[in-house]
Write a structure and sequence with these properties.
By secondary structure, the protein is of the alpha/beta class. 36% of the residues lie in helices and 17% in strands. It has a four-stranded parallel beta sheet with strand order 2-1-3-4, with helices on both faces. The two termini are 24 Å apart.
Amino acid sequence: MRLLTLCGSLRERSSNRAILDAFTRLASRDATVAPYLGMGALPHFNPDLDADRAPPAVSALCQAIDQADAVIISTPEYAHGLPGAFKTLLDWLVGHPPFAGKPVVILHA
């Protein structure tokens, strides 16, 4: 099973990244766990650039989603909502059909 981890924080020493790192260490030997580390490079969402004209960082995100059997998310809460950078990541995935049917697990402390 191929698992993709998405950390909603850009902080290098994020507690959410620590949770995902612990998950990676404890994952089954049958699982391959890959972190997605490109969130900071994603441009602001622009539907005119979606699909065929997607920026390279968006194409890399979609490829990572395509290759994963499931997605593991850990994100902080800012002002009673998701961090802006993580919301941008999700906005880019809304129009990506493979993401819609992907199993998702949320890890939060």
